[in-house]
Amino acid sequence: MSLVKKYEYLQIGHVGLRLYPEGRLLFAVPKKGRLQQAAFDLLAGSDIQFRREHRSDIANVKNHHIALVFLPAADIPTFVGEGNVDLGITGLDQILEHEAITPPTQDTGAEQVLDLGFGSCRLEVQVLENGPYKEPEDLIGRNICTSFVGLTRQFFARLEEQGEASSNGSGRTGKQLKTKIKYLSGSVEVACALGVADGIVDLVESGDTMRANGLKAIHTVEESKAVLIKSKHASDPKLVDKVASRIRGVIAAQQFVLCQYNIHRDLLATATNITPGKRAPTITQLDEADWVAVSSMVEKKKIATVMDELASCGAADILVLNIGNSR
């Protein structure tokens, strides 16, 4: 039994001990950063009601036997992977970094439940725009600064092994890494300009920060996004499944709209090819002979094109409705 499940106190970083009601399912969410607000919106859409006291790291959910734990996104894979927390929202980059340093076993490591549809970014190898380095292979043996030491070591170890295999026919398995990996907890993007690094490995969303610091990306190490993860030994699997189902419904509602239209039965096959729905469209006979009403879920990003195609094939009275939730 983990310490969190056994006792009423939980150690959260440097904050100290916080009291929480024993037996609640623990759900970790980012305490700050780029994923926090989208995670809060997802919880609100899932009717997970809570009130966070000022500077408190735990909040009891009012309408479920759940306690939210506010943690740095980088720490959430550790707490979930070791079974101290049941559920968590974090970035895929943080999960892969944790696994690069602490490989999962049969009993440890987090399980991915759901892609949450936000927080997309890339872990990129970056160098000065006007510098001498053009390819990641140019950085072998150089100084690299990053907050993702595990993934960076793995990446350059593969590069070095490939380089040695191509030059002499044998890899560098077990040899010491030539490339010097330095850890920085923040402001990684200024390391090249200050002469601390020849290159960096850092997250890129829009690329504005990268360009503002005179950097360019030369290779993508990993693609990332926000994900829901769970412990392999969750304290209440049924409640975990319920929360995941609610979140899945909110995501579907965010990504889809309901398209409704009327069409002559002779044109029905053409129209339903345009709007096949998630499973199948709903078709209802109208009072007017040979006319039917069709309802179908359509991806929100495609709805304008779909409406154009429906109008072109003879559909009438086309309506688009937002979806509040879905299961």
Topology:
Elements: H1 3-6, E1 9-11, E2 17-19, E3 25-30, H2 36-45, E4 58-60, E5 66-71, H3 76-81, E6 87-91, H4 92-101, E7 111-115, E8 121-128, E9 143-146, H5 149-168, E10 180-183, E11 199-204, H6 208-212, E12 215-224, E13 226-230, H7 237-255, E14 256-264, H8 268-274, E15 282-285, E16 291-299, H9 303-312, E17 316-322
Parallel strand pairs: 3-5, 3-6, 9-10, 9-11
Antiparallel strand pairs: 1-2, 4-5, 6-13, 7-13, 8-11, 8-12, 14-16, 14-17, 15-16
Helix pairs in contact: 4-5
Quick rundown:
This protein is α+β, with helices and mostly antiparallel strands.
What is the 3D shape? globular
Strand pairing plus helix content: what structural class?
alpha+beta
Oligomeric state: single chain
Instruction: Provide the low-confidence segments as ranges.
Output: 1-9, 11-18
Termini distance? 34 Å
What is the residue-averaged pLDDT? 90
Gyration radius, in Å: 25 Å
* Total E-strand runs: 17
What would the keywords be for this entry?
28% helix; 17 strands; 5-stranded mixed sheet; alpha+beta; 327 residues; 9 helices
Please provide a written account of the structure.
The protein has 327 residues and is an alpha+beta fold. It has nine helices and 17 strands. Helices cover 28% and strands 30% of the residues. The chain starts with a helix and ends in a 5-residue tail after the last strand.
